[in-house]
Amino acid sequence: MAKRDTLPFAAEHARQAMLLGDGLSALSALSLAPTLVIFGAGVVFGAILLLALLVAMVWSLRAAMKAACGERYRYPLPYGSAPVSPFS
Question: Residue 19 domain-assigned?
């Protein structure tokens, strides 16, 4: 994000990756609470968290490949930032 004013393409990709990381952090925190209360729930919530992390890894790899080719990539999430115009 240090170059967000001079490189809008890099800023957009950094923003998308940051939003994905924030979402995964929230998911981790939400799945930790029931695990601490009920030990058996850790298996269920742990499996859900593992699946979410694997999906996030695939999305991150796809984003990296697109960025390396100079293409924009939006993570398929219900939240995110507005696309940045390359001419702004």
Answer: yes
